[in-house]
Amino acid sequence: MTANTPAQSLSGVRVLDLSRVLAGPWCTQTLADLGADVIKVERPGAGDDTRGWGPPFLKDRDGHDTAEAAYYLGTNRNKRSITIDIAKPAGQALIRDMVAQCDVFIENFKVGDMARYGLDAATLCALNPRLVYCSVTGFGQTGPYRERAGYDYAIQGIGGLMSVTGERDDLPGGGPQKVGVAVADLFTGMYATVAILAALRHRDLTGEGQAIDMALLDTQVAMLANLGANYLTTGVAPKRLGNAHQNIVPYQVFEVADGHIILAVGNDGQYAKFCEVAGRRDLAEDERFVRNADRVRHRHVLVPLLAEVLKQRQKADWLSALETAKVPCGAINDLGEVFADPHVKEREMTIEVQHPLSDALPLVASPMKLSSTPVQYRRAPPLLGEHTEELLAEFGLSPDQQAALRAQGALG
């Protein structure tokens, strides 16, 4: 960091990261983007599972596939990689020694695994009472499912998300549908980030660390948000409604003359404006449709009427007219269109970083825009074990000690 480089919010915070795949690495990438020194501990010879989750893989300077999958690259920037075999007693002892010099420890092993290695929260927090210890599992440290392996796809089903995602059961294509990205993993990573920041705040005020128990299923249940509230209020489980909204009408995808648009009318005033643009003031004055609650009750009547109106004009015409009238609407873009969008470009939602195997590695940027402590892109996603010797030296291990650990099979 130079004298002209802005400070970062988490500068000075050191994170020992034993997580892999998505939820944990998403959390630690966020912490790293905010300035934390994240040390990614990986299995010798294999590393994070997602290194091999391709294609696509990063191309080298000659255009050939490397061993670095795009999946891995998207969740591991700003970290340093060290290879330690925690199945070996010497590797476990090394982790315990490192923990004494760290602020945060995060892992996503199955319940009980860390205790077998002597790396559980009780042990490590006793060694370093200021430590924030975060466990990420599928089902948490307690409860009848605690020993089950947790995968996003299954959690979306068990946690209710697939019961409200997808087309209506009575229409073609109806039935359970998962979300297109691993939202249970991603939300758990973000909630874990918030919990860690809260725990660090508490630690800085009191000197006391603590353990955090993050579960994908807990997160999935929580992120049902208004649908969970709907059920708890009524006792009636919401059903799949395809692209329609459970509580707002009209708020869904509609077919137009040359494709589809999203119409997202959020209040009665916007609905009246839409009817004006559509040339159907009568639909704004019909007592069945004046208020949102009535539109929800009579959606089976209103939506087909609107569908016929929307088919009469082309997408560009609708979007221009509705945007001018301040009626929320939108196109449905593929990712090529997303990254070509002038607004996305203006918001600098892509970055390029230098990578040891490629001159320019494109990545999705962080969405966090901080005025005084901005996100910085200091490091490319690390190669497996790229920083092992550097980190061991920082933690005070001499060349002879490093050699002894290698001889014991504790290092990659």
Through-space gap between termini:
29 Å
Biggest pleated sheet: 6 strands, parallel
Strand content: 15-25%
Mean pLDDT: 95
Shape by Cα distribution: elongated
> What count of helical segments does DSSP give?
18
Low-pLDDT windows of residues: none
State the share of residues found in helices, binned by percent. 25-40%
Radius of gyration: 25 Å
Question: Order of strands across the biggest sheet?
Answer: 5-2-1-6-7-8
What structural class do the secondary elements suggest? alpha/beta
By DSSP, the count of extended strands is 13
Protein architecture, described:
- The chain has 412 residues and is of the alpha/beta class.
- It contains 18 helices and 13 strands.
- The chain has helices at 23-33, 70-73, 89-99, 113-116, 121-127, 152-158, 183-206, 216-222, 225-234, 268-278, 281-285, 292-297, 299-310, 315-324, 335-340, 342-346, 388-394, 399-407; strands at 14-18, 37-42, 57-59, 65-69, 79-83, 104-107, 132-137, 210-215, 251-256, 259-264, 329-330, 350-355, 358-364.
- The strands form 4 sheets. A 6-stranded parallel beta sheet has the order 5-2-1-6-7-8, with helices on both faces. The chain has a 3-stranded antiparallel beta sheet with strand order 9-10-11, with helices on one face. Strands 3-4 form a two-stranded antiparallel ribbon.
- Helix 7 packs across helix 8.
- It is elongated and about 85 Å long.
